[in-house]
Amino acid sequence: MTPRSARLTTAEVSSILSQLASASSRSEHARCRKSAARIRALAEESDRDRRRLAASGAAGVLAASFHEIAAAGDGSLDVLSEILSALVLVFPVDDEDVFSDIGSPKSLDAIASILQSGGSSARLNATLVLKQIVSSNKDLARAAASIDGLIEALLSRIGDPISPRGKRASLLAAFHLVGSSEESTTARFIRTGVVSLVLESLMDSESEKRVSEAALAALDRLCSFELGRENAYGNALTVPVLVKNMFGVSDLATELAVSSLWKLCKNGEVGCVVEALQVGAFMKLLMLLQVECRERVKERATELLRFFNKYGKGLGCIDSKDFRGLHRPV
């Protein structure tokens, strides 16, 4: 494609978006696909034009068009995939109307279908859009988690040989879904092996802070349920990963790691206590009491230390003199 030399005008943007809106409202799929492809090409060609499209409300028009075609039930995945390929270029946005359209049940059904049956590029774009949806609003995340096949399709994408960007988006979307889902939906996640997925992502030394925080939030949510704790107890990575993430990531990661370990230990798993002591949890929790952090974190850290004292002395793991001066109420 020959690069454009002229600046994209407001009038041109308005005309392109009007053509897309008109085509989608009339279910003229060929025209709709052509308009979406033009928006994508302009956004890819010039960052200046991409910003102009975004500022002119392109995301809203694309989301509305996707919703209309998905709701009509007669649109091909090719047309819907083309719209998503343009939409990812003008995200992120904070317009509730955009998420209302792209996060509608019919739109989410279509996104799930693309995740299941689309080509590699289409699946990547669907994952990127889904990540934006579920991270924007917990109600939308719960709605997405209830869509048949969406959870399974998303998790299956994580194991594919896709781009680092796609893997990151898949992980973030999955973790946001876990963190927002109802108990019955959380059980679906657990049965698909999400606990192992969360722990493996936390073991990845290249994971960025945002991914680690989302993973820890998901694990903390999973540990709120008996089935989740059972899966966590059965995975050799659980305790070492939690102790490792108590420091060095962020204050939020520290809070989530302590919370998860507290949930595991307080539910009577002595083996978890012993392992935590063996991998250095005791000293890290003592250090945590000396630094600035939320009171709730310190309360749980103190309770864990008292818990270690209760079980650890009889197992020869710690000496009671280590707890001298520890009088913080729990």
Task: Draw up the topology in text.
Elements: H1 10-25, H2 29-45, H3 47-55, H4 58-72, H5 77-90, H6 96-102, H7 105-117, H8 120-136, H9 138-145, H10 150-158, H11 164-180, H12 183-191, H13 194-203, H14 209-222, H15 226-233, H16 238-244, H17 251-266, H18 270-278, H19 281-288, H20 295-312
Helix pairs in contact: 1-2, 1-4, 2-3, 2-4, 2-5, 4-5, 4-6, 4-7, 5-8, 7-8, 7-10, 8-9, 8-11, 9-11, 10-11, 11-14, 13-14, 14-17, 17-20, 18-20, 19-20
- Number of E strands: 0
| Gyration radius over CA | 24 Å
- Which bin fits the share of residues in helices? over 70%
Class of secondary structure makeup:
mainly alpha
| Envelope shape | elongated
Mean pLDDT: 86
Q: In DSSP terms, counting alpha (H) and pi (I) runs of 4 or more, how many helices?
A: 20
Which stretches are poorly predicted, pLDDT < 50 over at least 5 residues? 319-330
Approximately what portion of the residues adopt beta-strand conformation? under 5%
Order of helices and strands: HHHHHHHHHHHHHHHHHHHH
Name the assembly state: single chain
Q: What is the end-to-end distance?
A: 66 Å
Main beta sheet, described? none
